[in-house]
């Protein structure tokens, strides 16, 4: 089926080629004013200025008049923990009362709290909950997503999470990539036996994950009190033997060398980056690794935002993602993430949109499929409400400025 979209006020993120944007390039967001867009079988087939629309347009079987809407590539959310069993608002209240993130984790809260809830839930119920979250995110403009395990922390429960992600992958209308995060924290039973848990990850979880093709990436929470740089290296090297690529949680609370090791391991991305030394910024800028910034986690944990300006100005490639999870970012709303990055991290609107689309696609190895208006890519698109300009999107934070979301050439809901 072919659909012609006409009278688009601005077609945003038009790119003939896929290039990961770094440094100054991040502010370059190519648009076509007063545009048309042709979609064939759910895939972008052509685009251009309305004035160049040929006679052929008259014979189109299906047309949609965008009447002055802006059309953007849907958000590419490259870091989420979307599969979880329950919310953790009791910890939210504890934190308001002054209890720290680390103190909550130390007394069995945090990730372990989510793991206990997940262990008690069936695969089917987990899938039902995750599916309804995913539907909400798509209606908020997310057109591709990465989902991690990491609330299982046992062979059985990690595999249960990954099988839920696998089912989402098979049935979701948007591309889903899967990340194995068995090394999210040490389960209680292995609190004093790190080697034992790492052995379980390497010898019991990874072979099944590889056998059933349950993950595209491997992640480790490299942090004081969680996994050390050496432990991260051991786990990544084992996972890489099965073809999983590293995408790693580093430099959230402390700078302990995780970022440098991730670069050495040729990670696809290093995620969080709230705590960056000047040397960390320089090392990232000189590497090919994408720095994925998660401003809503910093916001929710009341931490200083990631130093986006310094990271971009040093020449690094950055992506933006939601980190949707029940502990540190109970929102997967990428519109809010884009606003926060402009308001809290002084990213330009063009930089934020690029970081949340094309660079996010690169951070999931999905750049051939999504992230820009490019012939051959999926027509996963955001149609805005009537807005005066593109910067109005991050400026008017909290308003729902999305009129419709298109997934694979069809309007979603
Ligand atoms: N930092 C590690 N993991 C999650 C938080 C997990 C949780 O608190 O449940 C994050 O990315 O912020
Ligand atoms: Zn995370």
TrEMBL record:
Entry annotated with the keyword Hydrolase: yes
Residues bound to Zn(2+): 79, 81, 249, 323
Keywords associated with the record: Cytoplasm, Histidine metabolism, Hydrolase, Iron, Metal-binding, Zinc
Subcellular locations according to the entry: Cytoplasm
Extent of the signal sequence: none
GO biological process, one term: L-histidine catabolic process to glutamate and formate
Entry's cofactor comment: Binds 1 zinc or iron ion per subunit.
GO terms for MF: imidazolonepropionase activity; iron ion binding; zinc ion binding
Catalytic activity field: 4-imidazolone-5-propanoate + H2O = N-formimidoyl-L-glutamate
Chief location: cytoplasm
Binding of 4-imidazolone-5-propanoate, residues: 88, 151, 184, 252, 328
Span of domain Amidohydrolase-related: 227-410
SUPFAM superfamilies associated with the record: Composite domain of metallo-dependent hydrolases, Metallo-dependent hydrolases
Cofactor needs: Zn(2+); Fe(3+)
Residues reported to bind Fe(3+): 79, 81, 249, 323
NCBIfam families registered for this protein in UniProt: hutI (TIGR01224)
Family designation: Belongs to the metallo-dependent hydrolases superfamily. HutI family.
Function summary: Catalyzes the hydrolytic cleavage of the carbon-nitrogen bond in imidazolone-5-propanoate to yield N-formimidoyl-L-glutamate. It is the third step in the universal histidine degradation pathway.
Protein name listed in UniProt: Imidazolonepropionase
């Amino acid at each position: 089926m072919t659909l012609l979209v006409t009278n688009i006020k601005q077609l945003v993120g038009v790119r003939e080629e896929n290039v990961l944007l770094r440094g100054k390039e991040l502010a370059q967001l190519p648009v076509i004013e007063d545009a048309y867009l042709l979609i064939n079988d759910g895939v972008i087939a052509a685009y251009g200025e309305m004035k160049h629309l040929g006679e052929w347009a008259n014979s189109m079987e299906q047309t949609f008049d965008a009447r002055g809407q802006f059309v953007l590539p849907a958000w590419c959310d490259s870091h989420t923990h979307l599969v979880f069993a329950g919310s953790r608002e009791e910890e939210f209240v504890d934190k308001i009362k002054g209890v720290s993130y680390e103190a909550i984790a130390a007394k069995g809260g945090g990730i372990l709290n989510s793991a206990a809830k997940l262990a008690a839930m069936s695969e089917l119920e987990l899938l039902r909950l995750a599916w309804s979250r995913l539907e909400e995110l798509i209606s908020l403009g997310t057109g591709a997503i990465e989902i991690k395990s990491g609330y299982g922390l046992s062979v059985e429960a990690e595999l249960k999470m990954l099988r839920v992600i696998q089912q989402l992958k098979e049935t979701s209308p948007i591309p889903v990539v899967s990340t194995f995060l068995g090394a999210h924290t040490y389960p209680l039973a292995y609190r004093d036996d790190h080697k034992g848990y790492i052995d379980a990850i390497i010898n019991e979880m990874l072979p099944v994950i590889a056998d059933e093709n349950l993950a595209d990436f491997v992640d480790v929470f490299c942090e004081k009190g969680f996994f050390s740089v050496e432990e991260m290296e051991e786990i990544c090297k084992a996972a890489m033997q099965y073809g999983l690529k590293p995408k790693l949680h580093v430099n959230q609370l402390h700078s302990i060398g995780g970022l440098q090791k991730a670069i050495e391991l040729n990670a696809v991305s290093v995620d969080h980056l709230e705590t960056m030394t000047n040397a960390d910024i320089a090392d990232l800028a000189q590497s090919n690794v994408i720095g994925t910034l998660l401003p809503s986690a910093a916001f929710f944990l009341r931490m200083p935002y990631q130093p986006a300006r310094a990271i971009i100005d040093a020449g690094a490639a950055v992506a933006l993602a939601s980190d949707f999870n029940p502990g540190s970012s109970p929102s997967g709303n990428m519109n809010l993430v884009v606003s926060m990055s402009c308001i809290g991290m002084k990213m330009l609107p063009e930089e934020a949109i690029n970081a949340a689309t094309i660079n996010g696609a690169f951070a999931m190895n999905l750049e051939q499929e999504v992230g820009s208006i490019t012939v051959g890519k999926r027509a996963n698109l955001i149609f805005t409400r009537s807005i005066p300009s593109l910067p109005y999107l991050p400026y008017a934070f909290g308003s729902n400025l999305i009129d419709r979301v298109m997934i694979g050439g069809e309007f979603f809901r």
